[in-house]
Design goal:
With 246 residues, this protein is mainly alpha-helical. The protein folds into 2 domains: 119 residues; 121 residues, no CATH class. It contains 9 helices and no strands. α2 packs antiparallel against α3 and α5 packs across α7. The N and C termini lie far apart (78 Å).
């Protein structure tokens, strides 16, 4: 009778372990689907589309934590399971695999946001401080544009100026300063435009991605706003490939 009870309890244990294994596999599949969706969203954002939402990131974190918890329970259950009614020490092969999987999962859960931030640019605080310290200068084409758009209502012919100078020798004719006064706001507006104008209103991760993508364009590489992103990008490439340091 005791043998029948032991066989029944063994079958119950097998069913319970099998159910836990199926639940762990389902949790891993759900976590992989959420991770693939986030990767696709980042690819879409780099091409100009919408990026991953906060809900997607929260869902991925919940699924990763649930998978780690299920794997830990399954590992504990397998480690405490006796074989052939004999006391058994936990097998290093059986226990090491779930623990290694949990360690890898935890590492990737923490490393994915850090990799994204390090790969696509500096953090928001360093970038904002660097951009605030940078002087804003007008582009080389700005003086020509400002002079072309300056009003010509106050300009006078040379003959009129010469006659006035002869009529009043003690007074030196002075040019109107309205052209210079109107050219100053144009120069300021020309210098204010740049890659950062396209990335206004984004969070620090998406702003770093946007600035990195905008500064990678040939037309924006000489902009002063791209000095820090390009420097950070060269440092990241040098870390990935040490041969570039030589």
């Amino acid at each position: 009778m005791s043998e029948g009870f032991n066989s029944r309890s063994a079958r119950t244990t097998e069913v319970s372990i099998g159910a836990q294994l199926d639940a762990t596999r389902n949790a891993a599949s759900a976590r992989e689907e959420a991770q693939a969706a986030i990767v696709r969203s980042f690819g879409s954002f780099i091409r100009g589309g919408p990026g991953p939402t906060e809900e997607q990131l929260r869902q991925f974190a919940r699924l990763a934590a649930d998978e780690a918890r299920r794997r830990r329970r399954l590992a504990d259950r397998l480690a405490a399971r006796p074989a052939d009614n004999e006391p058994k020490t936990p097998s290093p092969v059986v226990v090491a695999r779930p623990l290694r999987a949990v360690a890898l999962l935890a590492m990737w859960t923490v490393a994915i946001p850090l990799i994204v931030v390090a790969a696509f640019g500096p953090r928001d605080g360093s970038f904002s401080s660097a951009s605030e310290k940078m002087p804003m200068h007008a582009s080389p084409d700005a003086p020509a544009v400002a002079l072309a758009q300056a009003p010509k209502a106050d300009t006078e012919p040379l003959a009129v100026v010469a006659e006035r100078s002869r009529a009043a020798p003690g007074k030196t004719p002075r040019r109107s300063s309205s052209a210079h006064a109107s050219a100053a706001p144009l120069l300021a507006r020309a210098g204010a435009r740049g890659p950062s104008a396209k990335c206004t209103g984004l969070s620090f991760v998406f702003r770093a991605v946007c600035m990195n993508y905008a500064c990678a364009q040939p037309s924006a590489r000489r902009s002063l706003q791209c000095v820090e992103p390009l420097r950070q990008r060269r440092l990241d490439e040098a870390r990935r490939n040490p041969l570039l340091l030589g």
